[in-house]
Amino acid sequence: MSAPSIGPQALRLFRYASARGDWSVRSACEQLDTTVDEIEHARGQLIDLGLLVESADDGPTAKATAPEAALLRLLTAEEEATVRLADRIRRTRERIDAMREVFLPLHVARSGTLGDEVITGADRIARVLGDIADIATSEILSMHPGPVRPPEVLAEGLRRDVQVLERGVTMRSIHLRPMTRIVHSMKHLQELRSAGAQVRIADIVPFRFILVDRVQALVPALHTDAANAMMVLRGEAVTALLVRVFEMCWASSVPLDESGAGEESGLTSQQLGVLRLMSTGRKDESIAREIGVSVRTLRRVMADLMAQLGVESRFQAGVRAARTGLLD
Question: pTM of the entire structure?
Fold first, then answer.
């Protein structure tokens, strides 16, 4: 609501009406040397402000009131309007929650095939993320592998996450360690944590997903040929499995500001993660994608790792790791 304004003509009329209890529009025009339209406009401004009060006995003139009383009436009216608005918002949210409880199970039952739920294109995926965030009422769990995203993408995600957190929704997220090595991404994580989210860092994250209220999730559509395609999953059977995966990754990750694992062995947590992936026979490209770095960076990490282990080949590194218990 915009603040009411008062013009110079209205001020002149207020002074005139305050000095005379029986004024009329005609007498005001004569005394103030102005037109009927100007007087009517000024009269309307003063009535809106409560400085003139109409009554059935006064006819078209209206009586001047004390400014203090008018201001108090304005404040009281604004407070009452705020209370009414808050009540409407509360009742609207109650209706939305009730509709959600009724219609979400129906939507889950209708969405029996996964093919209809595949989402492609960065813009469409962003819209679906926004929709999912909007319906969250209690909890969002998320895991974020892959390369570090550009500042503008992280900023948009942070804006959406802060709005969710301000509604009282709990948020836990797991991110790859490279996020902590770049200024803009580390700042993003710190701001996310400051907004109320619980943030952890891992060396390996199996796949990206966002799980809302343990009933709806956005996961990679690995069964399609489309690049970066995502898929919406619903239903307790699937989401319970995602919760189990998340909790296992959460338990093996560390809070944002804590040092990594591997201190006793002299290896960094990243080196331990690479060592474990190497032991599974994964190729360099696959390992690099898994930990969110380039192949060139990965090979530098692997060279440092083998130098610290005192070996010259991946096979020897695996044998040394097994003998020393690094893979336990």
Answer: 0.52
